[in-house]
Structures
1.
Amino acid sequence: GILKVSRQFLQDSTFPAEKFIISKLAERIGDKQNDYFTVGTGSSQPQGIVAGAASGVALATGHATAIAAGADTAAKAADLLSGLNGLVHAVGYRYRTPGKAGFMMHDTTLKAIKGYTDSTGRGLWQPSLAAGQPDTLCGWPVYVNNDMAEIGASAKVILFGNFSYFYIRSVGTVAVDRLVERYAEYLLIGFNGYQRVDSKVMDTNAIKYMACSAS
């Protein structure tokens, strides 16, 4: 929406208020774009990566809530590892390209998974030892995206796949219109930020999701 700012504020401010406003508009647009790029329906908005992904693995009743509860046990760890491996192998081998394939999930989902170990006592999640490189889950890079659904009934909680098959089209950069006359009688100036973008999963075989059961 249009952000309306008083002329008095812009005139009296002791710091570069207009520059600050524009930077915050850009942040707001970026946040909304990430939301659309993640869960957008593709109808009158970009298609999000979750909407474009295909079904990979469904967690059985009670499985997801047990994982979310933490408390590592051998049985739950084995179930989780089986589910993650099933999701990886739901994606065809030719798509599992090192450096391009990986997991994506909400931070709370990753938090729940961090406490689990395999049968040898090795953590399923491993922190990166190289600056600028992602942490790994079952040997694959894991990326946090808080526009992904958290663990819950019927939620698509984890993606795995080759993310290079998810295309984003951006037309130009973020633009901001300064609306001087529109609210002049109220001594307000409007700022309207926007950018043209679109997105789509180009091959549904390349990206699959793990979904929780309905109950």
Note: The CA atoms of residues 9 and 168 lie 37 Å apart.
2.
Amino acid sequence: VLMDGDSGRILYEKDGYQIMPMASTTKIMTCILALENGDMNDMLTVSSYAASMPKVRLGVQDGERYRLEDLLYSLMLESHNDSAVVIAEGIAGSVEAFADLMNEKAQELGCKDTHFITPNGLDGEDAGGFHHTTAADLAQIMRYCIKTSPKAAEFLEITRTQQYSF
């Protein structure tokens, strides 16, 4: 999908409305919701569930505490699955409650074929279907993150960073 960022008009698409798993692009929504609903200095506690996340991970341990800001850099620069779960649980109390926030925001943005279940993009399924989106909906989410969100500047600062240590 090629979208005009100012108007939101799709200029070109090829299979732009085909429903597909969204994988780690999910973390775009996780980041913007954390920025809008949290404080960068919030200290979030790691649950055993978050510590159990597979594949690409920061390596957090049950009971550890991290600043939200550090976790957001881990999320967006390294795509850490465990950081996404710590953020979701810290912002909304549970992954399920955070997924509800994600789905509400997607509807608010006009996404028609998006359903969030996980904050990290790992496959999932629930009563609403499987974790999925389309290129058109993903472009709409990204446009919001970089253009119209009240936290667009913070989102861009994180995603433009080349290195970050904590």
Note: The chain has a mean pLDDT of 97.
3.
Amino acid sequence: QGIGYDIWAETKNGTMEMATGSGKTRVGLMAAHECLQSNPNAAIYIVVPTETLRDDDWPSEMIEAGYEYMITHPGVTRICYASLHKERPISDVDLLICDEVHHLTPLSAKFLVAGDWKVHSVLGLTATLPQIDLIYGLDNDKRLMLDELCPSVFKVPIEVCVELELVSDFDIY
């Protein structure tokens, strides 16, 4: 987590590719906490694909990590991808955390480029970044969009996460 965070922090723009259960949310919380420590009035958006992640999982992780102040902090907005294109921040956005960034669509990505505000830094989090497919091209447009907006800057394959005991060994049947 710490190494990946440090790599992302060099440019404050990019995606962390990490296996499920290896600490992606913790990296996001570290970034949000650091941002709020630097600027208590920072505007931070945490974008997720589901209401459960927005209302239950992220707040639970905030409490578990000792960052419960973020749950009610006026500068921290938790929002679903489906609503992001309708959002109109009242100021520039200091940090946009895209949990499960592979759910970012061209419509929701307009938040980064089409408003009267500027998004200063982007942290993408995913275990499943779309791959370029030279034969069928199924996810090529999405991958190219993600590479432009928040390119992969750190990757930890599942095998390494198991070896480091960040996630439990598993079998697929």
Note: The helical segments are 2-11, 24-38, 51-64, 69-72, 81-84, 106-113, 140-149, 158-163.
